[in-house]
Amino acid sequence: MKHVAFLSAACMLKDNPEARKDYWEYDLEISALAPACRDAGIELVTRIWDDPDFDASQYDAAVIGTCWDYMQKPAAFEAALEAMAGKTRLLNPFETFRWNQRKTYLKDLAARGAPMIPTLWADRADAATIAGAFDALGSDDIVVKPVLGGGAWRQARIRRGEALPAPEMLPIAECMVQPFLPAVSQEGEYAFLFFGREFSHCARKLPAAGDYRVQSEYGGREEIHHPTADELALARSVLECVEGDLLYARVDMLRGLDGRLALIELELIEPYLYPEQGPDMGAAFARALKALI
User: Fold this and answer.
1) Strands 120-122 and 189-195: what pairing?
2) Nearest-angstrom CA–CA distance, 194 and 191
3) Which of 1, 4, 127, 188 is found 20 to 30 A from 212 (Cα to Cα)?
């Protein structure tokens, strides 16, 4: 029996008084993964990534899982993963993590031909940056995101002429600005899940009425989506822009103003895997994990 650590965060444990609103997503995910891994001869054990008593050398591998507090302490997270990578097989690899943790990786993917949303990059989300973004992007409705972050953390939608959000609602430092795409509210986003580069399933993510954020903590919901051959080929083309061994990958796409799907994120660090939309997800994950270790 192989022993693999599934890295999570203390805020994802339901008994923690400071648990996130979406802590139950960890429960759903591990409930799908652990039994399938056990059937494949792998014991998947949840460990908190910053627990001082966690010794990665005692495991055959460590999987970066629901570590959803990393954006609040990125330096500590990177240091912890680098130390783990020196003691065991880190999945996805540390080099992949280091590249994918900052959304500037989207520049690399654009250069490699991935279909992209027009994006403006800036050192800070101040009034001058936001004012200039409306004209630069040719849009009166924009979304500002931190370069390092996830789950709509410190992300804001801003319309021309509106007062800016409070500073604590905007990115702390470097940011990216994109035009707001109406399809997110009308059609939703698509999350294509791959394990060992093999397609597993696709979830359509829909925001709550009146919102544009698709995460469950903001009232978002998901449903199964059966992609067309063209949609799946486009998602695969994004993944083909990245080399190396990948245990998991999630390609998030949204329909642009031209009617074509464009890349929002290529999640290679700690993506939610949407187990409810992938009934065979656990087995697919276990196969990919077994092949890598």
Assistant:
1) unpaired
2) 10
3) 127
> What is the C-alpha separation between 147 and 103, in angstroms, rounded?
5
Q: Is 238 exposed, middle or buried (0-12, 13-18, 19+ CB in 10 A)?
A: buried
pLDDT digit string, tens, across residues 172-227: 778 889 898 888 888 999 999 999 999 999 999 998 777 767 777 767 788 999 99
What is the phi/psi pair of residue 206, to 5°? -120, 135
Q: Look at residues 47, 91, 46, 36 and name the one whose alpha carbon lies nearest to residue 286.
A: 36
Dump pLDDT digits (tens) for 75-119: 999 999 999 999 999 999 999 999 999 999 999 999 999 999 999
202: phi then psi, degrees, rounded to nearest 5: -135, 135
- What is the model's pTM? 0.91
> Rounded to an integer, what distance in angstroms lies between the CA atom of residue 156 and that of residue 144?
5
- How many Cβ atoms are within 10 Å of 113's Cβ, its own excluded? 11
**224 Cβ contact partners less than 8 Å away, ≥ 6 residues apart:** 201, 202, 203, 204, 277
